[in-house]
Amino acid sequence: MSQQPSAAAQALPGHPFVAYHSAELQVEDVRLSQLATEHGTPLFVYSKASMLAALAAYERGFAGRHAQICYAMKANSSLGVLQVFAAAGCGFDIVSGGELERVLAAGGDAAKIIFSGVGKTRAEMRQALQAGIGCFNVESEAELDVLSQVAESLGLRAPVSIRVNPNVDPKTHPYISTGLKDNKFGVAHEDTLRIYQHAASLKGLQVVGIDCHIGSQITDATPYLDAMDRVLDLVASIEASGIALAHIDFGGGLGINYNNDTPPAADDLWAQLLRKLDERGFGQKKLMIEPGRSLVGNAGVCVTEVLYVKPGEHKNFCIIDAAMNDLPRPAMYQAFHAIVPLLAQTGATLKTTEVPEKMYDVVGPICESGDWIGRDRRLAVKAGDQLAVLSTGAYCMSMSSNYNTRGRAVELLVDGGKVHVIRERETAADQMRLERLVRL
Ligand SMILES: *Cc1c(COP(=O)(O)O)cnc(C)c1O
């Protein structure tokens, strides 16, 4: 099993493998300051043990059940991260043909892939059918028709599940809530039975399951329990109409601790959900889930250096070398990431208070006012200090961009005391490789 952090270490809340050891921040057994010196900043560092511990919590929850965990890889699609989950026997939830190629490159099992998303192209459908994926999670009636045609043209039958929209409020940010009836995902509850009957009539399809996914960063069990009730009502009526469903997929969405958030542990959540499943007589069904953030979010930190400290009349700015292109969540969703020093300034080891603590807006170098990483943070910092932006394993690198021609950061995978470079720092030449100068 995965190793436990040492008792002397002071682990950060929600980050069992990120801890201060004698005032120095470490991921597993490796000091972050050493990694910053060797690899430069900004720098993403992921803990393998943390990912496997998060996966193990789901596996405990499903012990003795017929269940398949499909990592929703859009949370972090780096090959080295996918390898960890593929080697652990995970399936994958993909949303594009590119993600399919990544899973296969990382050694994932095609039969354990499910393909989600509202806008699959014919080319992506062909690619996934030829690879032999496990299931298409179809999001509209029109998509069913196209998928059936594509499968027939290849002489195949596409395994399908239909994503239903249970119309429950996950009480999360509107941009990451997906199960309310006015958003673009899934088919409406009241249309579901008719659409299943249509699917069952199409020659290129084989109905295998039903799925839902109600949103992300959900910190309460109630929306899951409500969604399960609604999905099970549908399962009962679909099966009563003569269409067998081999599996039920409850999506992903479990939250992590970013800022004193208290999501249920995966095994506790599933203990509650499985109780309901058993009560309603569906305990023997094959179960699928699609967690993303909860498997990788708190496995990652982003190490950054303070470039300048800029006092202002109303605000002080701490300008760091990571920016919204590396860490897009604050700009996109006003999201919170904790920011801590690599060298703890408190406690017995502190010799001198070199700089006073002040309130700062922590911002990046990009030419946008939206380029902030943290607001109103109490920090004692000076130029050259190194900071760690926490909970950056999910929806950071996978959403990163080259805005301002900034190269994407280095990514490292830490495994105990071992460090693997899983992505090198991107150069300007890498960025210009596909561009062509013209004869003017
Ligand atoms: C994004 C997504 C997930 C994963 O969501 P998390 O909040 O990262 O767990 C699962 N299923 C579908 C269909 C998704 O779009």
| Molecular shape | globular
Strand tally, please? Answer: 22
**Helix count, per DSSP?**
12
How many domains would you count in the coordinates? Answer: 2
* CATH homologous superfamily grouping of the largest domain: Alanine racemase
Query: Would you tell me the overall average pLDDT?
Result: 94
List bound small molecules.
pyridoxal-5'-phosphate
Q: In CATH terms, what is the fold-level topology of the largest domain?
A: TIM Barrel
Taking the alpha carbons of the first and last residues, their distance comes to 62 Å
Q: Which residues form runs of ≥5 with pLDDT under 50? A: 347-351
- Indicate the CATH class of the largest domain: Alpha Beta
> Structural class from helices and strands?
alpha/beta
- What is the CATH architecture assignment of the largest domain? Alpha-Beta Barrel
How much is the radius of gyration in Å? 23 Å
Strand content: 25-35%
Could you give a short account of the major beta sheet?
9 strands, mixed
The share of residues in helices is: 25-40%
Provide a descriptive summary of the structure in words.
The protein is an alpha/beta fold. It has two domains: 174 residues, Beta Barrel (Lyase, Ornithine Decarboxylase, Chain A, domain 1), CATH 2.40.37.10; 176 residues, Alanine racemase (TIM Barrel, Alpha-Beta Barrel), CATH 3.20.20. Helix content is 27%, strand content 25%. It has twelve helices and 22 strands. Strands 5, 15, 16, 17, 18, 19, 20, 21 and 22 form a nine-stranded mixed β-sheet that branches. An eight-stranded parallel β-barrel has the order 6-7-8-9-10-12-13-14. A four-stranded antiparallel β-sheet has the order 1-2-3-4. About 1% of the residues have low confidence. Pyridoxal-5'-phosphate binds next to helix 10.
